[in-house]
Specification:
The protein has one domain. Helix content is 63%, strand content 7%. α2 packs across α12.
């Protein structure tokens, strides 16, 4: 018997995923103006390495201090040996190749053109999510994502400061493709414990990036700058990564790319008090366009009859219409993770492209 549909309207995962995604974007968005203050104390490669290491060290400290209880440790699905290739791919594409391509590109391009091209990360993520990972976006969602990316592009558009270089542009496009691959690999592993995944990714990327900085002759900054950098890394990279993974789990990489594209607006807003910059007409127009795009992403209603195929996997869940199974010690309504089986099921309700709803659309 098919369980009753508990999601007749807008799916709750969309709202929670949007909240996680927008908060992750806000935390990451405040990092560029703050990192700009730190750059005189070290090169981009050194600061990037310290930011990632700060994220990994902060998450490791959080696990050690606050996640000792066995119940908490086992609420999320643990990272296993079968995830090592996904983690390696995330570290290589998102933590090494992406930053290297970006830094090499910025040496050949103006900062304005480099920032403009960085907005290609969202289209790269969405394209790979739809074509490679089987995600689906409705017309409103496509329009919303395009509006947000367009607004972010508009924020950085200053034609008088454009200095194009063919290889620099290619390298920046390569960086965005690398981050698009990283985002989709992150979605595939988002069912695992997000704190552990983020910690492994941050420490791996931080160690590799910092090693490259030290090998090129850069030296560590003073103690106070070091503390400030790793603290910023924990907040803007570590916590942001955890929230981003939760959003990827709930709404998929394509939608999350749209929400995360609001980060440049947060950076522009934060630059007003931090760097003394002005919030001019361009920023106001971009904020209106961006808000419209977010509203379109939230208003999409995607519902149709669909088939859940036979599936066995392990992730955090509660017992709902998608999770009907017995426990040896009795049924529990608390969030928990274990290996469980999904029998084939056909029903209709509003949904997004998370792990249980990746299917063909006619």
């Amino acid at each position: 018997m098919t369980p009753p549909d508990r999601h007749p309207g807008r799916p709750a995962p969309l709202l929670r995923g949007a909240l996680y995604g927008l908060t992750a974007a806000a935390l990451f968005g405040i990092s560029p103006p703050l990192a700009k203050l730190l750059l005189p104390e070290g090169g981009p490669l050194l600061i990037a390495g310290l930011l990632y290491l700060g994220a990994g060290a902060g998450l490791l400290a959080y696990e050690t201090l606050f996640r000792r209880g066995p119940d908490l440790l086992h609420r999320e699905s643990p990272v296993g040996s079968g995830d090592r290739w996904l983690l390696a791919g995330m570290i290589v594409t998102g933590g090494i190749l992406g930053p290297l391509c970006m830094l090499w590109s910025l040496q050949r391009l103006s900062g304005v053109l480099g920032s403009l091209l960085l907005n290609l990360e969202a289209p790269a993520t969405i394209g790979l999510a739809v074509l490679w990972c089987g995600e689906h976006l409705g017309r409103r969602e496509v329009a919303g994502a395009l509006l947000i990316v367009s607004a972010a592009t508009f924020l950085h558009y200053h034609p008088q400061e454009m200095y194009p270089d063919t290889w620099g542009v290619i390298a920046m496009i390569g960086a965005c493709v690398c981050w698009g691959i990283d985002n989709n690999l992150s979605q595939k592993i988002s069912m695992r414990d997000p704190v552990v995944v983020s910690r492994i990714k941050a420490l791996g990327a931080g160690f590799c990036t910092l090693s490259m900085a030290l090998l090129t002759g850069q030296s560590l900054p003073g103690p106070m700058i070091l503390i400030m950098t790793v603290t910023l890394g924990f907040i803007s990279y570590g916590v942001s990564l955890v929230l981003d993974l939760r959003a990827l789990r709930l709404i998929g990489a394509a939608r999350e790319a749209g929400f995360f594209s609001t980060a440049p607006f947060v950076g522009a807003l934060a630059a007003v008090p931090i760097l003394g910059e002005r919030f001019a007409v361009a920023e106001i127009c971009a904020s209106v366009i961006m808000a419209t795009g977010v509203a379109l992403l939230l208003q999409e209603h995607h519902s149709h009859s669909h088939l859940h195929e036979d599936l066995t996997h392990d992730h955090l869940h509660t017992h709902d219409n998608h999770h009907q199974h017995d426990h040896p010690d009795g049924c529990t309504n608390a969030p928990h993770a274990h290996l469980h089986h999904h029998a084939p099921l056909r029903h209709s309700h509003a949904h997004v492209s998370e792990a249980h709803h990746r299917h063909r659309h006619e």
